[in-house]
Amino acid sequence: MAKAGLIRPAFAFRGVRMQWPRAPAVARAACLWDRKAAAMSAPGPFKSNAAAFFGGVKSAWTSVFFLVLMGTYIGIGALAHDFGLSSWWLALSTLLVWAAPAQVILVSALGTGAASVEVAIAVGLSAIRLFPMVVALLPLLRGPGTRLRELLLPTHFTSVSMWVESLRLLPGMPRVRRVAFCNGLSVGYMGTAATFGFVGYYLAAGLPPLFAGTLLFLTPMSFLISTANNCRQMVDRLALVLGLMLGPLLTYWHVGLDLMWTGIVGGSLAYGVHRLRQAAA
Fold first, then answer.
1. Strands 11-13, 16-18: parallel, antiparallel or unpaired by DSSP?
2. CA-to-CA distance for 192 and 197, rounded, in angstroms?
3. How far lies 17's CA from each of 14, 20, 23, 126, 235, in Å?
4. Tens digits of per-residue pLDDT, 39-53?
5. Where are the domains of the chain?
6. Per residue in 78-102, is it b (16+ CB within 10 Å) or e — as a string?
7. 159 CB-contact burial (10 Å; exposed 0-12 / middle 13-18 / buried 19+)
8. What gap in Å lies between CA 172 and CA 170, rounded to an integer?
9. Weakly modelled stretches of the chain, pLDDT under 70
10. Separation of alpha carbons 56 and 186, rounded Å
11. Rounded to the nearest 5°, which phi and psi values hold at 143?
12. Which of 91, 95, 72, 66 has the alpha carbon at shortest distance from 198?
């Protein structure tokens, strides 16, 4: 066990254990996150798919991501208002795109008069990051009798918030109820996003630009904290640390598609170290 105030060991090569002190602000944020996660009740046994669906909605509304989406979409609503887009256009884009970073790209690009083809390419490239999440989630949902059409909605619904909570909650649930629960979880999150998008849109006149921008920053920070909190193996922690190191460097060097290259290089290096440790064990 690591001492209080220290992050769990990130490397363990032949008995050598390395630890880094956790910054006080990060420690407080992680502590609050852990307390909130502990307070959320695990979904109980569901007798029907309808019960599992509404159990998913309840889990969404009692999750810490409810607060994150609330703040994020207030900021996106204010952004859409400033660029002259309608509130119903924003709600429809939330349902169809369902990815806050992609919506920010869509709103800002269309608002500045970019060509539709360029906007479509940019939004499509930003959505590539969701592909590995879908690949990781589908084996948890698919059962012996699961049909392809039953997986279409969860595939579209896959987002950072839904993916993190699904990986946490689905393993303890009967496989036959997982698709319905996942759909309910996503509908709860999507309804929250659409609702607070309207709130942000009509509050835009009273929101300072700096505050609206700060709200948009909630999504990446929540993903970072939840990912760090859910790391269980050395390879997970190493990939996270490498990503945090490589991301700013690639941005500073103005490398195109920096987020994609951060994931490819950092993840590949972490996996290579993991295989070397397995071979040496």
1. antiparallel
2. 8
3. 9, 10, 19, 37, 14
4. 444 576 899 999 999
5. 1-39, 45-221, 231-281
6. bbbbbeebebeebbebbeebbbbbb
7. buried
8. 5
9. 1-42, 44, 219, 257
10. 8
11. -120, 180
12. 91
